[in-house]
Design brief:
Number of strands: 21
Radius of gyration: 21 Å
Distance between the termini: 29 Å
Helix content: 25-40%
CATH superfamily: FAD/NAD(P)-binding domain
Organism: Sulfitobacter guttiformis
Mean pLDDT: 93
Structural class: alpha/beta
GO cellular component, one term: cytoplasm
Keywords: Oxidoreductase
CATH architecture: 3-Layer(bba) Sandwich
InterPro entries: FAD-dep_OxRdtase, FAD/NAD-bd_sf
Largest sheet: 9 strands, mixed
Number of domains: 1
Protein name: D-amino-acid dehydrogenase
Low-confidence stretches: none
Oligomer: single chain
CATH topology: FAD/NAD(P)-binding domain
Strand content: 25-35%
């Protein structure tokens, strides 16, 4: 079949490669270029244990104080609040014990073998050099801070996430960068990994896709054409693009099209930020989630990236200073003697569905179009497996996992 994939982030490129390997003729349509958005700017962690959503019980009680704390990882552009309220009402309705467990089971099935899925996707390509297998660590300033996070670790226990809890002094024997006093307790998550340059990694995968005969078309998708309730063409400034099947993997830009397809998903952009220090004087050995600021410090190729933060402010507003300044303060506090040649600041968009679960599957009963978006904080982690199961669905094979939690039809009007 001829298949169009809209979007050239990690999800779109992964889908295109697996479809190509299944024997299909694939065209990827992208408005700027591969990895031009969140697939470039993420924390670079293959977070197989990311099975706990942001919306846990008690979030509504905690959120106001977090918004007023300049060192908390939650920000809001207040002018955007009126437009945000309907989404927040739905989003916060999922802060229940039952949904946390439902989310954990579903996301564990998608993420548990993330490293192996990336290795399979990148096998025998230059992209494979960017995949490493360090632990993903969580650093707590005090044991009391770790104990206060017992709910999340209990939920990870329930999904079989493997980890070791060590003292900060013991961790310092592995990585002396943080010294023996920065963290009293460190959790080392096993079976995790890292992408040493996410943007370069996805571009290398895209180059491989093209080298194998795939087509990468740079074009702005302006609309879709519908017939009998199903999409039959992508509309661009240069005309209509038609194919046997169309996959939508446009991240936070997917909502408008999804709603036209009748997939009325409650959906928002979560704005994420990073700062990146080039040629730093100090480089950690493994990614570290700094629990006090809920940001990740990740070693990259020649750079040290601090990434994280949640800001609700829509797709159109420019970057805010407060989240970036918070990251600068946190890094300075964590590594006061750190020196570097330059610093780059970045803001991008994460696609956030109301229930935090990505949409993966057919949009209509005939299987003419498919959704592949909404991965929130784990697009890099889950992108290769998402692409693989979509290729199986499109090729009329049954994936070896329960896809019901991700089915776009649950949002059908």
């Amino acid at each position: 079949m001829h298949i169009l994939v809209a979007g050239a982030g990690i999800v779109g490129i992964s889908t295109a490669i697996w479809l190509q390997r299944a024997g299909h003729n694939v065209t990827v349509v992208e408005r700027i270029g591969p990895a031009s958005g969140t697939s470039h700017g993420n924390a670079g962690v293959l977070a197989a244990g990311a099975v706990v959503p942001v919306t846990t019980p008690g979030l509504l009680r905690k959120a106001p104080a977090m918004l007023l704390d300049r060192d908390a990882p939650l920000f809001l552009r207040w002018s955007y609040l009126p437009r945000l309220v309907p989404f927040l009402r739905k989003y916060l309705s999922y802060a229940t014990e039952a949904h946390v467990d439902h989310y954990g089971r579903a996301m564990s099935s998608l993420l548990h073998d993330s490293v192996e899925q990336h290795q399979a996707l990148a096998a025998d390509t230059p992209a494979a050099a960017y995949i490493t297998t360090e632990d993903y660590c969580f650093g707590y300033a005090t044991r009391a801070d770790f104990d206060a996070d017992a709910y999340s670790w209990g939920k990870r226990d329930a999904q079989g996430v493997r980890y070791d809890v060590v003292s900060g002094a013991e961790y310092a024997t592995y990585d002396p960068v943080f010294g023996t006093d920065t963290f009293e307790t460190v959790v080392r998550c096993k079976n995790h990994g890292r992408i040493s340059d996410p943007g370069a990694y996805v571009r290398a995968l895209a180059d491989h896709f093209v080298a194998e005969g795939g087509t990468l078309l740079i074009a702005d998708i302006t609309d879709i054409e519908m017939t009998d309730g199903a999409v039959n063409a992508l509309m661009t400034a240069n005309g209509a693009l038609r194919a046997d099947k169309i996959v939508f993997a446009m991240g936070p830009w997917s909502r408008k099209i999804a709603h036209k397809l009748g997939v009325k998903v409650p959906f928002e952009s979560e704005r994420g930020y990073h700062i990146e220090m080039t040629n730093p004087s100090t480089m950690p050995r493994a990614p570290m989630m700094v629990a006090s600021g809920k940001f990740v410090l990740t070693p990259m190729r020649g750079r040290l990236r601090a990434a994280g933060v949640i800001e609700f402010g829509g797709l159109d507003a420019p970057a805010s200073r407060a989240p970036l300044e918070m990251l600068h303060r946190q890094v300075k506090k964590l590594l006061p003697s750190l020196q570097y040649e330059d610093v780059v600041e970045w803001m991008g968009h994460r696609p956030a569905p109301g229930d935090s679960l990505p949409l993966i599957g057919a949009n209509d009963t005939r299987g003419l179009s498919y959704s592949a978006f909404g991965h929130q904080h784990v697009g890099l982690t889950g992108g290769p497996k998402t692409g693989r199961v979509l290729a199986e669905l499109i090729s009329a094979r049954t994936p070896n996992m329960d896809m019901r939690a991700f089915d776009p039809s649950k949002y059908k009007a």
